[in-house]
From TrEMBL:
It comes from Georgenia daeguensis. Pfam families: adh_short_C2. Keywords: Oxidoreductase. Residues 315-337 are annotated as: Disordered. InterPro entries: KR_dom, NAD(P)-bd_dom_sf, Peroxisomal_Beta-Oxidation, Sc_DH/Rdtase_CS, SDR_fam. Residues 30-218 form the Ketoreductase domain. Belongs to the short-chain dehydrogenases/reductases (SDR) family. This is SDR family oxidoreductase. Coiled coil: none annotated.
Length: 337
């Protein structure tokens, strides 16, 4: 069984009998916008949606990159057009929706993927560092979803909103105040949109990917796996299963599934995916409660807080397991015993 077939089995999708490399879905006739889709994860999403039959509006800030992305889709028999503009301003969101309608007649799917990084610790982060990341990720998601929702509600046939989050937004990460705030905000908006858009049969979900991209190649812990993927090598089980870390193509199947009719009953969810792992993130919820007649003052808190909540204080950051020792090291340790 191929990796693609395995993904299809896990997600309940059908694999075409005439090919082992393509997942067929009910996306024919659908029209999608994928922001930040010139390369990396966004390109994988756009290519997968097009392979499933959707017409795609590709978005990037680089004309050549956008044109190359469109060419890759059309060369494979898909339909695509490009709109080059930075995500964030309302004008870009309106232009993207207009491009979908003018080129393909409608809009059914929006994937908000565009993003940038300006990593540095809190005390060194400038206003521009913060504003740039929040503008692209958070405001860009808001403006694009707002315009898409207006169009989808006018059409009256439902729709799919898929917003890309991050483990950093779920757990935090050193040096990423701006990125963590934006990605956490995206998931919060998704939960709200799931309620607001339900009557219009528009679903809203977040995908939390972990994959080898330009953003993760700068993380030392992932470098060896990113380098392996760049060389076309298969990532080891430790990366794909223990870390849940894989390629952009590993994530694309989940995005296409959420865009399809098969996911009509799924909304307001944060779905993690990477390598061989598929996960459902919980919503924040109370893990312990306590009551005090008259409320809680300083004295009561200083006396009781540790006994009440000390054992259930929540951790922060992504726990990174120790990678397995190389085979040579294991053999040497056995001999030493």
């Amino acid at each position: 069984m191929t990796d693609v077939e395995g993904d299809a089995d896990r997600l309940g999708l059908d694999v075409a009998e005439d090919t082992h490399e393509e997942i067929r879905m009910s996306l024919t006739g659908k029209v999608a916008i994928v922001t930040g889709s010139g390369r990396g994860l966004g390109l994988a999403y756009a290519q997968q949606l097009a392979a499933g039959g959707a017409s795609v509006v590709v978005n990037d800030v680089d004309q050549q990159v956008a044109d190359d992305a469109v060419a890759s889709i059309t060369a494979a028999g898909g339909k695509a057009t490009a709109l080059v503009a930075p995500v964030g301003p309302t004008e870009t969101a309106r232009a993207l929706v207009a491009a979908a309608v003018e080129s393909f007649g409608r809009l059914d799917i929006l994937v908000t993927n565009a993003g940038v990084l300006r990593d540095t610790v809190l005390w060194k982060m400038s206003d521009d560092d913060f504003d740039t990341v929040v503008n692209v990720h958070l405001r860009g998601t808001f403006t694009c979803v707002r315009e898409a929702a207006v169009r989808m509600r006018e059409q009256g046939e439902g729709g799919r909103i898929i917003c890309i989050g991050s483990p950093t937004g779920q757990r935090g990460n050193f040096g990423q105040t701006n990125y963590a705030a934006a990605k956490a905000g995206i998931v919060g908006m998704v939960r709200t949109w799931a309620m607001e858009l339900a009557r219009a049969n528009i679903t809203a979900n977040a995908v939390i990917p972990v994959a080898a991209t330009a953003m993760t190649e700068t993380v030392p812990f992932f470098k060896q796996f990113v380098d392996a993927a760049a060389r076309g090598e298969q990532m080891p089980p430790f990366a794909r299963r223990v870390l849940g870390f894989g390629t952009p193509q590993d994530v694309a199947g989940v995005v296409a599934f959420l865009a399809s009719d098969a996911a009509a009953g799924i909304s307001g969810q944060a779905i993690g995916v990477g390598g061989d792992r598929l996960a459902l993130w919980s919503h924040p919820q109370e893990v312990a409660t306590a009551f005090q007649d008259g409320g809680w003052g300083y004295e009561q808190l200083s006396e009781d807080f540790d006994s009440l909540f000390g054992q259930v204080l929540q951790s922060v950051g992504q726990p990174m397991p120790e990678p397995p020792a190389p085979a040579a090291d294991k053999a040497e340790k056995v001999e030493q015993r």
